[in-house]
Design brief:
Layout (H helix, E strand, L loop, with lengths): L1 H14 L18 E3 L2 E15 L14 E16 L2 E14 L7 E11 L5 E12 L13 E13 L4 E14 L4 E2 L2 E2 H5 L1 E15 L2 E14 L7 E12 L5 E14 L7 E14 L3 E13 L7 E15 L3 E14 L1 E3 L7 E3 L3 E14 L2 E13 L7 E13 L1
Antiparallel strand pairs: 1-2, 2-3, 2-23, 3-4, 4-5, 5-6, 6-7, 7-8, 8-11, 9-10, 11-12, 12-13, 13-14, 14-15, 15-16, 16-17, 17-18, 18-21, 19-20, 21-22, 22-23
């Protein structure tokens, strides 16, 4: 049974595609609740958004927004496996969406990721990957409830140059697929967004202190679209980064880099600009936790006649513990979608302008922990400010949560 379980886990970890080339370690926790020889598992069961959603489809007030009673059941499991000549880790989560009246929206989403590596003295070959199959997790630009599948596979090797200096060489493949006839505001998302991406790159990491690591990654990617060849592009990124150990005063990671994207058709303007990402946490006196999340990324747009947009967002999260049982938290976020001008591929003399949009959100959360179980109540509100009336909306969700860790 142990051999069968280990074999099955390795198979899942190999095809569930890896989170990040920068994830250098897959060490298991010391207190994994389920242990079967070399296999360690950490299951978690969550029941979230058990309550009311005032605007399921993110519609403007003139379109009579539809509300419904909702719930999301999310079992997940993290796993680690030690082999004679390698190590593996993986994670799988299922999200079961329930709607009382809008029964057509009921769905099961899956999200899996994993990494397998083989330590060979100074070399450490690895395979990482991820697979997401969802109807409900879209980006900030797209409010449609549409089936989307994304997958990625990265193959490479880490090379330990010195005790503190490590380099990585890797090649990757990504794929995005929307179901045919996934219509959003008159656009078939499959026609404009389905693509295959291939790339390669290298990174360098240096352990500056026992708690701080700095590094830089350079990679080149090529995106080829199934039905929209005018969107085909080549990109080059250089991204310095810094990581802080969870035991440091400030934990997390941050990066700030430069991206160059060139469209092969010549009908869209190239992009030369900055990209950034941050996830930093500071804990005050062991009770109050402050988290800052930042993002500036270039994304492909669903709008026909457009190429892409820049998404910039900043979120502040605060959580306060009261004793060993109670905690209260909240968040405040602001995101902006910035569109430039693009020459339409159907008419090279036409220049289309699309208005920028802002999304503002806040949330409040309170919970009580009893042994391995946390019971909570959450309220969150989101508002999109857009010049186009059909894109503007307000959405309020009130619901309870239940989390059980085995």
């Amino acid at each position: 049974m142990r051999r069968a379980g280990a074999t099955m886990f390795v198979t899942v970890a190999c095809i569930a595609v890896g989170t990040s080339v920068r994830a250098q370690t897959i060490e298991p926790p010391n207190n994994a609740p389920v242990q079967a020889g070399p296999l360690l598992l950490a299951p978690v069961v969550r029941l979230t958004n058990v309550g009311y959603d005032s605007n399921v489809f993110n519609q403007d007030n003139e379109s009579n927004p539809q509300g419904d009673v909702t719930a999301v059941f999310s079992p997940s499991v993290d796993g680690w496996l030690r082999l004679a000549h390698g190590r593996a880790s993986g994670r799988t989560q299922f999200d079961v969406y329930y709607f009382k009246q809008l029964t057509d929206l009921r769905a099961v989403d899956t999200d899996s990721a994993g990494r397998v590596e083989v330590p060979l003295n100074r070399f450490r070959p690895f395979v990482t990957g991820a697979f997401l199959n969802t109807r409900h997790r879209q980006n900030l630009e797209i409010d449609a409830i549409a089936r989307r599948r994304t997958s990625s596979v990265t193959v490479g090797t880490d090379v330990r140059l010195t005790e503190k200096l490590t380099t990585s060489l890797f090649t990757s493949r990504t794929r995005l697929d929307y179901d045919t006839n996934s219509i959003y505001l008159g656009t078939d998302l499959a026609d404009v967004l389905n693509f295959t991406g291939r790339g390669e790159g290298a990174s360098l990491r240096y352990a500056l202190t026992p708690l701080t690591t700095i590094g830089v990654t350079a990679d080149r990617t090529r995106h080829r679209f199934d039905s929209a060849p005018e969107r085909n592009s080549d990109s080059f990124d250089v991204t310095p980064m810094v990581e802080f150990n969870p035991r440091a005063l400030v934990s997390g990671s941050a990066s700030f880099g430069f991206r160059q994207r060139k469209f092969l058709s010549g009908t869209a303007p190239d992009f030369n600009g900055s990209v950034a990402s941050a996830d930093l946490t500071y804990t005050l006196l062991g009770r109050t936790r402050f988290t800052v999340l930042g993002r500036r990324q270039l994304e492909y747009s669903y709008v026909v006649g457009r190429a892409d947009y820049v998404e910039s967002s900043l979120t502040l999260v605060v959580n306060q513990r009261f004793g060993d049982s109670w905690d209260v938290g909240g968040s405040l976020s602001r995101s902006r979608l910035s569109y430039g001008d693009m020459i339409s591929p159907t008419d090279s003399s036409a220049v289309m302008t699309f208005p920028d949009e802002s999304i503002i959100g806040w949330s409040v959360d309170a919970g009580y922990r009893l042994s391995r179980t946390r019971i909570g109540l959450r309220i969150d509100q989101r508002q999109r400010e857009a010049s186009a009336q059909v894109r503007a909306y307000e959405r309020l969700r009130i619901g309870s949560t239940l989390t059980y860790e085995f």
